[in-house]
């Protein structure tokens, strides 16, 4: 595929090649926004957004305080026009497809004042062949958007009952009816900013005769370093040919006959000495590159498509066992403990995120010993670049479909556009090695059963029956049937979590979102005992530090009771849970100290949870904390704040996500040392007891150990009465390190038993 870009489309088209079957891509980047009716249009960047264009035209930065004050329902420019020049140099092509990879969300697309198509889904690709519709010379492509709030005003009036849309804190709740990023309507970790615009690339795809789409590679089996692969793709042709064509890839050649329409082609190929793709921390992540060539009956190469793939199998084991219901992943037949976080969009306007920012974030994830991210269902299906980086770095992806915390409408148009969305996204994503699981939605089933929606909305029994039937259709019929058809090698679950945290028995069954700590106001210590089979969500909030906040707010005006500071906190619980924990450790603090202390408390919470999850393997086989990143500068559960500063918790999880860890527990009578490892290992733990931080050394121990993969073993205990009487046990420090057989230290920790002072946090 040839991609061409330039100052003007007419110049691009003049440069077009005359290859009779190859695709050529011409980027449409000469867009103008009609900002006001009485003013000339202004040039804008596409991809972009109406709100971003408004700010750029007025030379302003995004004001996050203003977003909160106005609840993000802004009126901003909505009419975009691009000039397209059509002449003899373009007429060599049989097809000129106008392609919008993403329109946000409700738009009418015109060609020379004639309506081409209407979009109603942020997550779909839209395309139409312009070949027979163009005028010779200048043509105008116009995109006119309507805000979801205005679009669904009539929808709300015509409803016999209101569907839940718990994330919206405004009277006119329309998120549930919009196939649009739900978080932009507001959440308890981000403000409301309802955007519109051409949010993904748009271009002309020019081609002749036929084109190849939707390539996917399935690893059928791996035996003795030999992998049997199935390669599958679609060939679309506008004609039927009598003579045969020949497909060649990886040295394998076979004959086909091309008929008009879409034909699915599949073939098998064995790869010897296969290089397997492994998650981060378990091995390398090699990707194979190849070329799929098409030859005519004269053996002339007439079409080429570059493809990449990985060799690996992935299996979700979610079945009854002696404990309850398992939930774990096998990669290449090996059980893997998943360590990671929930990923949310990196900005309120997602198209403003650069590839460089995404690369930095995923490199950081890799360095933090994570091997899985969950792309959460209230955000967006991420960019191709995002998934490519996950492939390269061994970061597996739990992929939610974009439904979260609300039920679904029943109208036929909604069903139709969702079906098209799932097809589009699965065709786009299914060949990525990183994809581990397809999940129907976030928290909808648990919400329907436990969040009191029936009483809140006054549903009749007839209403409830209809609502749950619509839900069942989408998540137990429509979506899983598409998954089974397009990607049978991967598993699908209808919703996460599979069991609610309210009852102790539920911790024995499937995927768990545990919010007893935080939403349930339970103490952090409860992480130690409330451990599910796979912990998909759990978390504790903190704040960015003043250095980060000052980039976006006049921080000098912040006080605990000031309105400006209160706007940083969007959780309905507020700061009470954070304050209660801070008081236990530090007492009363100034604001800057309080911000730092909030990060310390969060780090301790994640440490407590992660250690408990890992030491409970194989009962627990995954820990994905909420959340990795932020989309705005405020309070949240993130490890990395909006200005890309790593919080204390990031460094804490980097340590406790390491492949091998050692844990010290002090009871009333003894000190116990426990080790755990993801892999088979033989190593040594060195333990040193000091009188105080940087104090005298009183005891040293060297403990060799051997572990099987995912094994937890108590390797050492020391009665407290055997510790030197010269040591105040309330102030002592224990240093731990793990060394390999060559005495090279690869992990270390320091445990202080005395009360920490706020000044020590600044030193760290």
Describe this entry's structure for a reader.
The chain is an alpha+beta fold and 764 residues long. The chain has a six-stranded antiparallel sheet with strand order 4-3-5-10-7-8. Strands 26-25-24-23-22-29 form a six-stranded parallel sheet. A five-stranded mixed sheet has the order 1-2-11-6-9. It is globular, with a radius of gyration of 28 Å. The two termini are 51 Å apart.
Topology:
Blueprint lengths: L1 E3 L4 H6 L9 E4 L3 E3 L8 E3 L5 H8 L6 H7 L8 E8 L8 E6 L5 E6 L2 E7 L5 E4 L7 E10 L1 H4 L1 H5 L44 E6 L2 E14 L2 E12 L7 E5 L2 E5 L4 E11 L16 E8 L5 E9 L4 E4 L10 E4 L2 E3 L1 E6 L11 H13 L4 E4 L8 H10 L2 E5 L11 H18 L5 E5 L4 H7 L2 H5 L3 H26 L4 E3 L17 E3 L20 E4 L8 H4 L13 H4 L9 H10 L5 H25 L6 E4 L22 H9 L3 E7 L3 E8 L3 E10 L6 E11 L4 E8 L13 E7 L5 E8 L5 H6 L1
Parallel strand pairs: 1-2, 22-23, 22-29, 23-24, 24-25, 25-26, 27-28
Antiparallel strand pairs: 2-11, 3-4, 3-5, 5-10, 6-9, 6-11, 7-8, 7-10, 12-13, 13-16, 14-15, 14-17, 17-18, 19-20, 20-21, 30-31, 31-34, 32-33, 32-35, 35-36
Helix pairs in contact: 6-7, 8-11, 14-15, 15-16
């Amino acid at each position: 595929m040839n991609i061409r870009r330039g100052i003007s489309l007419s110049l691009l088209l003049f440069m077009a090649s005359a290859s009779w079957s190859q695709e050529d891509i011409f980027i449409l980047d000469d867009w103008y926004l009609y900002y006001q009716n009485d003013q000339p249009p202004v040039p804008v960047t596409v991809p972009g957004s109406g709100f971003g264009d408004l700010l750029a035209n007025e030379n302003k930065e995004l004001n996050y305080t203003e977003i909160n004050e106005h609840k993000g329902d802004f009126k901003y420019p909505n009419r975009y026009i691009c000039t397209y020049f059509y002449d003899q140099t373009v007429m060599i092509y049989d097809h000129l497809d106008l392609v919008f990879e993403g329109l946000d969300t409700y738009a009418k697309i015109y060609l020379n004042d004639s309506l081409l198509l209407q979009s109603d889904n942020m997550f779909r690709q839209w395309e139409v062949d312009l070949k027979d519709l163009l005028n010779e010379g200048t043509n105008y492509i116009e995109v006119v958007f309507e805000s979801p709030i205005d679009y669904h005003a009539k929808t709300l009036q015509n409803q016999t009952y209101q569907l839940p849309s718990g994330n919206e804190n405004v009277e006119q709740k329309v998120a549930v009816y919009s196939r649009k990023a739900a978080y932009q309507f507001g959440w308890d970790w981000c403000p409301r900013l309802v955007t519109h615009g051409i949010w993904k690339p748009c271009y002309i795809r020019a081609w002749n005769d036929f084109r190849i789409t939707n390539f996917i590679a399935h690893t059928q089996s791996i035996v003795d370093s030999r992998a049997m692969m199935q390669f599958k793709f679609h060939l679309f042709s506008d004609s039927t040919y009598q003579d045969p064509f020949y497909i060649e890839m990886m040295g394998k050649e076979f004959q086909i006959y091309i008929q008009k329409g879409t034909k699915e082609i599949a073939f098998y190929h064995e790869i010897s000495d296969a290089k397997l793709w492994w998650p981060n921390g378990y091995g390398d992540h090699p990707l194979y590159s190849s070329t799929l060539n098409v030859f005519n009956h004269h053996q002339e190469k007439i079409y080429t498509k570059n493809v990449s793939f990985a060799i690996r199998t992935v299996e979700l084991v979610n079945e009854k066992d002696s404990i309850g219901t398992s939930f774990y992943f096998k990669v290449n037949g090996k059980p893997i403990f998943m360590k990671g976080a929930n990923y949310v969009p990196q900005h309120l306007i997602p198209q403003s995120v650069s590839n460089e920012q995404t690369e930095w974030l995923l490199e950081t994830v890799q360095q933090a010993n994570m091997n899985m991210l969950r792309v959460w269902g209230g955000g967006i299906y991420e960019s191709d670049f995002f998934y490519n980086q996950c492939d390269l770095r061994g970061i597996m992806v739990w992929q939610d479909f974009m439904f979260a915390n609300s039920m679904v409408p029943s109208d036929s148009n909604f069903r139709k556009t969702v079906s098209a969305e799932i097809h589009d996204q699965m065709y786009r994503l299914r060949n990525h090695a990183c994809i581990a699981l397809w999940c129907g939605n976030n928290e909808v089933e648990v919400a329907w059963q436990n969040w009191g929606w029936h009483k809140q909305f006054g549903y009749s029994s007839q209403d409830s029956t209809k609502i749950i039937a619509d839900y069942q259709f989408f998540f137990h019929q429509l979506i899983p049937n598409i998954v089974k058809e397009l990607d049978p090698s991967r598993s699908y679950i209808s919703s996460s979590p599979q069991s609610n945290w309210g009852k102790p028995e539920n911790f024995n069954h499937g995927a768990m979102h545990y919010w007893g700590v935080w939403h349930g106001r339970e103490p952090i210590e409860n992480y130690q005992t409330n451990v599910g089979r796979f912990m998909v969500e759990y978390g504790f909030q903190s704040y960015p530090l003043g250095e980060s906040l000052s980039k976006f707010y006049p921080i000098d005006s912040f006080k605990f009771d000031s309105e400006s500071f209160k706007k940083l906190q969007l959780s309905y619980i507020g700061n009470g849970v954070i304050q209660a924990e801070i008081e236990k450790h530090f007492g009363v603090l100034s604001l800057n100290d309080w911000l730092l202390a909030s990060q310390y408390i969060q780090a301790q919470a994640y440490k407590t949870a992660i250690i408990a999850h890992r030491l409970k393997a194989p009962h627990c086989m995954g820990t994905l904390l909420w959340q990795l990143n932020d989309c705005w500068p405020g309070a949240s559960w993130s490890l990395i704040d909006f200005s890309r500063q790593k919080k204390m918790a990031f460094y804490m999880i980097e340590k406790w996500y390491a492949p091998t860890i050692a844990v010290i527990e002090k009871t009333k009578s003894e000190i116990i040392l426990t080790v755990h490892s993801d892999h088979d290992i033989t190593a040594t733990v060195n333990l040193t007891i000091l009188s105080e931080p940087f104090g005298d050394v009183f005891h040293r121990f060297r403990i060799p150990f051997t572990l099987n993969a995912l094994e937890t073993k108590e390797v050492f205990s020391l009665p407290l009465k055997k510790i030197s009487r010269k040591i105040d046990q309330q102030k002592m420090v224990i240093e731990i390190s793990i060394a390999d057989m060559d005495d090279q230290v690869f992990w270390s920790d320091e445990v202080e038993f005395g009360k920490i002072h706020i000044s020590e946090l600044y030193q760290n």
